[in-house]
Amino acid sequence: MDAFFGDIYSVAIFILQFFKEAFSGPFEFKEIVNQCYKVGSKSLALVSLTGLVTGIVFTTQSRPSLSVFGASSWLPSLVAIAVIRALAPLVTALIVAGKVGSNIGAELGSMKVTEQIDAMEVSGTNPFKFLVTTRIIATTFMMPVLILYTGFVGMMGSFLNVYQNESTSFPAFFKSAFSSIVFLDIYASLFKALCFGFTIGVAGCYQGYNAQNGTQGVGRAANLAVVISMYLIFIEEITIVQLINTIR
Amino acid sequence: MKLFENNQTVKVGIFIFIGLLILMVTIFTLGGQKKTFAKTFVVNAYFKDVSGLQSGGNIWLSGVKIGTVKKISFQSDYQVQVTMHIENDAKEYIHKDSKAKIGSDGLIGNKIIIIYGGTPAAGHIVEDDVLSVENGLSTDDMLATLQVSNKNFEAITTDFKSISKKIDSGEGTLGALLNDPTIAVKLNETMTDLQLTVANLKVVSENSKYVISNFQEFSSKINKPGNSINDLVADTLMYSSINKSLTELRKAAGSVNQFAANLSTASGKLNDKDNAVGLLLNDPASAASMKNTLKNLETSSYKLDEDLEALQHNFLLRRYFKKKEKGKLD
User: Fold this and answer.
1) What pLDDT, in 10s, does the model give residues B157-168?
2) Å from A1 to nearest chain B CA?
3) Alpha-carbon distance B179 to B171, whole Å?
4) Domain spans, chain B
5) CB interface of B with A, residues 82-111, below 8 Å
6) What is the ipTM of this complex?
7) With contact defined as beta carbons under 8 Å apart, do A148 and B22 qualify?
8) Where are the domains of chain A?
9) What is the pTM of this model?
10) Which has the closest alpha carbon to B68: B85, B87, B53, B52?
11) Which of B19, B27, B33 sits opposite A149 (nearest CB)?
12) Interface residue of A34, A37, A159 to substitute, partner B, most B CBs within 10 Å
């Protein structure tokens, strides 16, 4: 139990240090762009594929239930609500947590156990700013963009499925889809994306930056980065949904 | 500049740009559909029951979305104020006496406000106007009505069950019709007769068609100028002449009538004894006297004949008669 609260304290200090480093110069723009590339562009293919499959599968699975009531025409609205409000942020976050979170944990863990971070400190480079801040900024700001891609591709996947089965035109599909969506849904999804991205970045960096016990520690850091990120993402999802429903 | 020469930077830039583009398109599509950027004006309505209407609910006019519900709040006991934002473009189609009611955009769809009715004479609605409302049927009301319908349907089916049972057991005319074979045979015969009647009617119909055709031909001939009937119908001079003849005929008939009346009077008088002829015809004594007179006259005539014969042989007149006879012979 002491270890649990000790970890909470350590994480809080870690986050405070992130904000301190993030808003103080010098700024590592090049490294931020490099991390954005790794987090964003490199994840795009995987995230897009997941989004497409999600859209198609969700539409296919929802059709029988709606067909019972003769309400197949509500498929676009249903898919839009599901994808934009919940699936796009959640699926993207889980994919990024698996791919990027583990990558960050393993990368920083390796650097930690091979004392590269210590070497950076000795050489006069701020390792926290260069390694942690850039990665957390990259995950935090790339996640909303990835979510937009996932949502778009997911809706396109849904459209393909609906077009194939109901021959619904493109304008009719998107008009129906947007009829059930409000601005609050978009803002909520983007807010969730920021939170999920920050969580993935913090969890990955914290576990990697504090890795111990050689190569075993690297594997443990990568594993914990993914597991903790996913747990926190689900908790945040529930909390933010409740918060948004209060506002709605 | 060196930063942008990096391939990664360009890729990240493109990635973020496309992401932002998707966001912008989404926002503008959503904004366009929700009419977020359209100019609106505020209109209020007070309902007793909003049936679960929510802020953001659509407002329809003739099935077209013209705005959204912005606020729902209690105004007083059993009165809910609904504040609506309606597009300026729709202002000219909503009149001051238009009404608002709570509706639904489908059988199980969201609650909406439907604006309807109104007369141009009342003028267009303006900012902060209050629309009169009509409290429509709620789902509970509809279910209550449906319950009554169900009970009626149950009663109907019960009656029908009783009727079908009677029919099946052969009770009543319909039952006998369905169950009694003799009626079926009679019905069959009736149908055969009916078929014959219809066949006859068909013949009659064809004959009547022929008659009508003849009649048409006849009437067409009548209508054709140059024949006597057409002249009779169409020639006004002939009509005048006929009319004159009829007048003369009527006058002649009048004279005949007068003559007949006089004759009747005369014949009547013949029956009376107060005149010579009537007395002669009706009084037997007079007839006897007359008969006697005639007898006397005959006798007298015979005697006179004899006297005149004797006179011819009289010496005084003999010479005259001889001379006369001689003159005849010459």
Assistant:
1) 999 998 888 888
2) 43
3) 9
4) 38-135, 284-315
5) 108
6) 0.76
7) yes
8) 35-247
9) 0.59
10) B85
11) B19
12) A37
